[in-house]
Amino acid sequence: GEDVEQSLFLSVREGDSSVINCTYTDSSSTYLYWYKQEPGAGLQLLTYIFSNMDMKQDQRLTVLLNKKDKHLSLRIADTQTGDSAIYFCAPSRGSTLGRLYFGRGTQLTVWP
Amino acid sequence: DVKVTQSSRYLVKRTGEKVFLECVQDMDHENMFWYRQDPGLGLRLIYFSYDVKMKEKGDIPEGYSVSREKKERFSLILESASTNQTSMYLCASRADTQYFGPGTRLTVL
Which of A70, A31, A72 minimizes the C-alpha distance to A48? Predict the structure, then answer.
């Protein structure tokens, strides 16, 4: 299987940048996803990156991948109170086959 | 828009009852998954299915079974519910990306 590690908590002030880190163990992971879960809701796909990329930017979100170190990060620029949620990193070996492996999630709290 | 629906948002059952959690997706996805989510433990995979009538055990299948008679529907069954199965249950389906339902919060008394 795959072990996915994330820090459990992160607190930032509104307007600052947030960086959520993730490490994984399976070097065969080719698709790496970030999900967001708001209180009482299911998981919502935020973004993903292919393993042949180093960086992907999508509006306020920047994903960085260090494949050598098996380290993935999600940066949220100009963090807002509405970004408060749990964020999950989820690597996968394939795009359509195979399961995703989830970390325990990082609880992001944004203070006004 | 992909839609994954779950039969109940909240469910309260008694110890020993047989419990059915239903999940339906409308995008003709072959892959479907059941997870449970507990504070501090993240998402743990219970069972998944790659096709109709196919099932694979996940990381914590004990105490659960599943049924996939139709492509769009994947059911999770607790044969005899126990208090340690009180949890949030999340269903998901997948093609190139994985989509989640809203979750069922099950309480077993």
Answer: A31
